[in-house]
Design goal:
264 residues; mainly alpha; 9 helices
């Protein structure tokens, strides 16, 4: 009932406050250590007998700060793992072969339908779900501090990227379907980039390259990208993985894929 929901919200708020306090404690201890070291070096002669002992004592604060930092990382990791079942279920539901056996086997009419203003692709539905799921952990007076929120979001991004790859490998793609996939992947990455910064793009490296391969005009075009940086990102898929991805395109001939000179 409403009481149990209110109690759950209070528990979440208390946990978020504790997480923010851990982060603040770690930062403040490091700042205190630096200030004390500066004062010790100013107040005592550098070759005096007390200097080494005082510096050793003050430096112990670093170990304390590290313990707070480690505790924070452990708790954020636990929170991220607790979100994973809902993320896994949602991604599976949005991309389930049972329900959408050919969402990327698009002909011209099917592709045009995806461009309609009334069409809501799975990528938009996923980001709407993420908005709701992660709202309590957003930066703000009732959420996480900015650094903690970013850490959690980056962990979620990593998990979502892996689950999307698992589900997308079960699909088949036409050329137009590859174009739609590229749009969907860009939508998801843009959502995380807006909240985590551009560094999160590396987390989606394999997913981005998966979409790039399925958006090529012909198999031989991959040689323009193989072994080089794409958008500043090193190529992450192996030659075997690349061939398996390209085999998902219904118009790519298997012998053309096999003939590709993909040296490692």
């Amino acid at each position: 009932g409403e009481e149990s929901v209110d109690e759950e919200r209070r528990t979440v708020r208390m946990a978020l406050v504790a997480l923010n306090n851990l982060e603040s404690a770690s930062v403040n201890i490091v700042r205190l250590r630096d200030e004390l070291l500066a004062e010790v070096r100013e107040a005592f002669p550098s070759n005096g007998p007390a200097m080494a002992q005082l510096i050793a004592c003050v430096s112990e604060l670093q170990a304390t700060a590290q313990r707070f930092s480690t505790a924070l990382e452990d708790v954020l990791s636990t929170v991220g793992k607790q979100l994973q079942p809902r993320l896994r279920t949602t991604v599976a539901d949005l991309l389930s072969i049972d329900k959408h056996s050919s969402i990327y086997l698009l002909d011209e009419a099917g592709y045009q339908a995806t461009q309609s203003s009334s069409f809501m692709p799975w990528s938009v539905r996923l980001t709407s779900f993420l908005d709701e799921l992660l709202l309590p952990y957003s930066p703000g007076p009732h959420g996480l501090c900015e650094s903690n929120s970013r850490t959690l979001l980056c962990a979620v991004a990593s998990y979502v990227g892996k689950r999307l790859l698992v589900m997308l490998r079960q699909q088949r793609f036409s050329q137009l379907g590859g174009m739609q996939l590229d749009k969907d992947v860009r939508t998801v990455i843009a959502w995380f980039t807006a909240r985590c910064g551009r560094e999160v793009r590396d987390t989606f490296g394999r997913l981005s390259q998966f979409a790039l391969l399925l958006n090529l005009d012909r198999p031989a075009d991959v040689m323009d990208f193989w072994g080089v940086k794409v958008n500043g990102m090193v190529w992450q898929l192996t030659a075997d993985e690349l061939r398996k991805v390209m085999a998902l395109r219904d118009d790519f001939k298997p012998d053309e894929i096999q003939r590709l000179a993909l040296t490692t």
